[in-house]
Amino acid sequence: MGRVLGPSHGGVWARVRPGGSVCLRLICTASRRTDAQQQGQQRWQATHRHGDDLYHALAVTLFFLTMLLGAAGPATVPIAAGSFLRGSDRAPDEQPVREISLGAFRIDRHEVSVGEYASFLKTGHSERKYWTEQGWRLRQSDVDPQLHRAGRDDSHPVVAVTWYEADAFCRWRGGSLPTEAQWERAACGGAPGPYPWGAQRDVSARWATFVHPTQTMTVATAPVSEDPNPSVSGLRHAAGNVWEWTSDWYLRNAHGTGLPTDPKGPAAGTWKTMRGGSFANLPSFATCTHREPAAPDVRRLTAGFRCAYSMP
Amino acid sequence: MRLLDAMMLVLLLGCGAEPSSSQEDPAPDVVLGGMVKIPGGMVRMGPRHGVSPPPETIAQPPVQSRVLADQQPWVSKAGMGLPPRYYAVSPFWIDVSEVTKAQYSRFLKETGYRLPHVAETWAQDGWNWTGPDPSPGTEEHPVVMLSWYDAREYCKWAGKRLPTEAQWLLAALGPAEDARRYPWGSEYDGDRLNHGRREPPNFDDSDGYERTSPVGSFPKGRSPYGLVDAFGNAWEYTADRRVDDWADMASSHGKNGVDSDPRTLGPGLRVAVRGGSYYFDLSEPEAEWAAFAPESRRKSAGLRCARPVPAQ
Lengths: 312, 312
Hints:
The structure holds two protein chains of two kinds.
Chain A: H1 30-39, H2 53-69, E1 76-79, E2 82-86, E3 98-102, E4 105-108, H3 114-122, H4 133-141, H5 163-172, H6 180-188, E5 243-249, E6 272-275, E7 292-294, E8 303-304, E9 308-310
Parallel strand pairs in A: 5-8
Antiparallel strand pairs in A: 1-4, 2-3, 4-9, 5-6, 6-7
Helix pairs in contact in A: 4-5
Chain B: H1 2-13, H2 19-23, E1 35-38, E2 41-45, E3 85-89, E4 92-95, H3 101-111, H4 148-157, H5 165-173, E5 235-241, E6 259-260, E7 271-274, E8 289-292, E9 301-302, E10 306-308
Parallel strand pairs in B: 3-6, 5-9
Antiparallel strand pairs in B: 1-4, 2-3, 4-10, 5-7, 7-8
């Protein structure tokens, strides 16, 4: 399961919310990582309780307890600062191919799950500070915020969330939606792809090959952590499963304009960009470069999201 | 005046209609590219085949809807097995013809929206747009390769909206009392529409067009209200979601046990499309009915828009 934190990931951000208030940050510093490698164990450290063994032990116990209870926060993947070739010649709105440099950031390894979104509905969802103005307006008119579980358990990706809700969720979690450039770099890391794992198309991914109009159709997602074809950087379901909202406004020619450093997309627009395809889309929609416009207030049974975080 | 308009229409259509056809022109005072006002009327939804026309006054209570085990839109069996019901539809406006590539091109240029383009091999046979202009000579053909979301965004931009399925039915077939199976009457006539055939490769040029035809190429196939290409040419998206039952049709039971203005707003997992296409055999009764995944972009899927009559 994706909650097991691999030793190769130096810094792992974890946030535990029993009751919605306790927040732990796990940091394996460079020296401690060496330490851990030598000793064959990882050292956990609560950020604001340096050196206090009692609190340390308590924090560790609490963390593992919460992991056992299945409420552990997001595992993230660090993406180092660097440049990559954004875009492709596969579709007009993916051109021109351009070298883009990005600062370092972290991104959720998994798509946000139903369970994680359920905690947000109970807590941050009612707090004004996490919402944009327009988002809060819609939030206020939504008298009975629904969790669109679609018959699936907590381990599956949340779907049918508006861009505004996704945006508020990520702020509540201490991050933001990734920019298009961040998403693309995290998904393919500048490799030609077109898929996060390479060029093979005959893999079992959560995408649609052909669905006959008379066939039964369901929200056919896989649990966020179960992905036989992770990206090179470790992301699960960057391609397929559900669409993922990004923070950029969509414009067909956005790749031809804007800065080559940390681009954030057009200043305004009508549609936000979604990335990564879904269980209801053909494989060509699930490339690292495919861009899909969507009205920010639309709820698609095929669309979810993951969050990004600036590097501490 | 009517005669003049009829002559203009013939000129516009660019085809030498025989004098006899103007005789049977049911609504000569509508212009391609414009809208026509549909007076209110009764439609029958669900299977029409083998059901006698409704009595003059409709007094029977609506068929009791079965309660679905899962009333959610998460599961769709493509809406098979709908119980037949009559619904009253209020007056509205609807496009006389399918949205053309020239019209869609204006939308693309003004907004920067995504081009109709699918990066799959089947789409590279002249279906993909490579710029915001349609390929020369195809300007008056219906725009296809749109998803339901694309269609919805176009109508929104045009200050219109997608017709509900009930509105589409009324506009295409006239009121239920007429008991038409086709826009022109009850007998199939393959010369009155741009149709395909059942066997692969499905394309059929016996009607003069292997693929799409300029809108209005089949004036003898017009609906009682003057709609052209309601059947054939391109599938047309409606605003409605396909459900397995009408249990969740959000409508009140009105007078005489008749529901008014039924809507099951999309998308859900399937949306209701009507009209068939150049790629489809329409000789069977009710063949013009289908359910598409709202995500898919098909080379036969287009649209026409509607507009409510403003409140007086």
